[in-house]
Amino acid sequence: MKAMRLMAPGAPLVAVELSLPAPREHELRIAVEACGVCRTDLHVYDGELPDIHCPLTPGHEVVGRVAEVGAAVTRFRPGDRVGVPWLAYTCGECAYCRSGRENLCREARFTGYTYDGGYAEELTADSRYCLPLPEGPAAELAPLLCAGLIGYRAYRAAGVAPTLGLYGFGAAAHLIAQVAQHEGRRVLAFTRPGDSQAQGFARSLGATWAGGSDERAPEPLDAAILFAPVGALIPAALAAVRPGGRVVCAGIHMSDVPAFPYSLLWGERSIASVANLTRRDGEEFLALAARLGLKCTVERLALEDANRALERLRTGELTGAAVLEMPAAASVATPRARP
Ligand SMILES: [Zn+2]
Ligand SMILES: [Zn+2]
Predict the structure, then answer these.
(1) How far, in Å, is the centroid of ligand 2 from the Cα of 243?
(2) Ligand closest in space to the Cα of 149
(3) In angstroms, what is the span from residue 91 Cα to ligand 1's centroid?
(4) How remote is the CA of residue 176 from the centroid of ligand 1, in Å?
(5) I want to staple 107 with a disulfide (CB 3.0 to 4.6 A). Which of 59, 91, 242, 338 is the partner?
(6) Which ligand does the CA of 93 lie closest to?
(7) How far is the CA of 157 from the centre of ligand 1 (A)?
(8) How confident is the model at residue 328, as a pLDDT?
(9) Class (C level, CATH) for 148-273
(10) What is the pLDDT of residues 117-126, one digit of tens each?
(11) Could you read off the pLDDT of 199-235 as tens digits, one per residue?
(12) Per-residue pLDDT reduced to its tens digit, 283-329
C-alpha cells in the first residue's frame, strides 16, 4: 500500500510503498477512504511537537472500512465504517484514566504522531479507540474526527457564552459555528487581517460579525476560542471578553504569548487550554453532528497531493477543511448487511 511519509521534520512528505503486518489482538486493519488534514499535522511536519520519530505517516482524521480484525476484536467486523481519531491508546490505569480524563494520560499515544496515521491507503489502529461512523461521503466525515471533536471540547470548555468569539475560521471554527447557531448563540469570527474570503465564509455560516483579528470586536464577548496558533491572540482575546469571560486555546502548539498587563486578566477572566480528546467526547460529538446535520465544507485532494494540502493550510488558502481521498478504498471492502 502507498503512504505519504515524513522522513525528517520540515522535508516534504515522500510517497512510499509499505506492507502492513497483520493486526494484533485488539487491532483493526483499515482501508482508508479519506483522511483530513489538520493544523496539528503541520506542527508535526514542522517538528514543533516533542519526540517525533521519523519515518512517520501523519493523519488523524481517518475514515475507512475495516479490512481485517485482530483475534480479540468484538466491536467491529470487516466492512464496517470506522473513524480513527487522534487518541490512539491510553494506559487505563492512571489517575487521569480512572477519572474520565484519559485525554491527559501520560502514557497516551496519538494517531499520526506516535503511531502511523491515515495519509495512507491502509493503517492499523487499536479498535478500542476507533469510532463507528455512518455511511455518506467519507471526505465530509473526516473533519469531524479532530476539527469537530476537539473544537467541540473547546466549545464546552468556553462555558455558557451567548456571544462567542472564534479566532481563526478554518476547519474547526466552521463546524463549531454551526453548533453555536443551533444553540442560539451569537458567533463573532476573527480571521487573519484582510482575509475577506474567510470572513465571507464565516458570515455564510451565520456569524453575526466577521473581521480581522486586529479589529475591535463590535460588542463584548462572553467567551473566545482560539483556533489559530498565534500566542499574540491571547491578550487580544482577553481584551475582547467581558469580566468573568474565558479564553480557550484549542491548539496543541502556539507561538509564544507576549507579555500583557494584568488588567486584561483582572475581572475573573481566565485562560484555559484544551488537550486531546476522550473517547466519550468522540461518541458525544458524532451523535450531535448527526443530530444537527453538521455540514463539512471540504477541499478534496489526492493522497499524492498531501504536501500541497499542507501548504494550502499553512497559507490560509483553504475554505473549510482539506481532505485526502483514496479512490481505491471504496472497492476494497463493501458494507455488509447486519443480521
Ligand atoms: Zn492513563
Ligand atoms: Zn487534529
Answers:
(1) 31
(2) 2
(3) 4
(4) 28
(5) 91
(6) 1
(7) 21
(8) 64
(9) alpha beta
(10) 999 999 999 9
(11) 999 999 999 999 999 999 999 999 999 999 999 999 9
(12) 999 999 999 999 999 999 999 999 999 999 999 899 999 999 998 65
Q: Give the pLDDT confidence of 258-280 residue by residue, as tens digits.
A: 999 999 999 999 999 999 999 99
* Distance from the alpha carbon of residue 38 to the mean position of ligand 2, in angstroms: 5
Which pLDDT score, from 0 to 100, does residue 188 have?
98
Domain limits of the chain? Answer: 2-143+277-332, 148-273
Q: How many A from CA of 183 to the centre of ligand 2?
A: 24
How far is ligand 2, taken at its centre, from the CA of residue 132, in Å?
18
The CATH number corresponding to 2-143+277-332 among 3.40.50.300, 3.40.50.1110, 3.90.180.10, 1.20.272.10 equals 3.90.180.10
Q: SS3 for the chain, per residue?
A: CEEEEECCCCCCCEEEECCCCCCCCCEEEEEEEEEEECHHHHHHHCCCCCCCCCCECCCCCEEEEEEEECCCCCCCCCCCEEEECCEEECCCCCHHHHCCCHHHCCCCEEECCCECCCCECEEEEEHHHCEECCCCCHHHHHHHHCHHHHHHHHHHHCCCCCEEEEECCCHHHHHHHHHHHHCCCEEEEEECCCCHHHHHHHHHCCCCEEEECCCCCCCCEEEEEECCCCCCHHHHHHHHEEEEEEEEECCCCCCCCCCCCHHHCCCCCEEEECCCCCHHHHHHHHHHHHHHCCCCCEEEEEHHHHHHHHHHHHHCCCCCEEEEECCCHHHHCCCCCCC
Give the ligand with the smallest distance to the CA of 170: 2
52-86 pLDDT per residue, tens? 999 999 999 999 999 999 999 999 999 999 999 99
Q: How far is the CA of 87 from the centre of ligand 1 (A)?
A: 12
- Nearest ligand to the CA atom of 147: 2
155 C-alpha vs ligand 2 centroid, how far in Å? 15
Ligand in closest contact with the CA of 89: 1
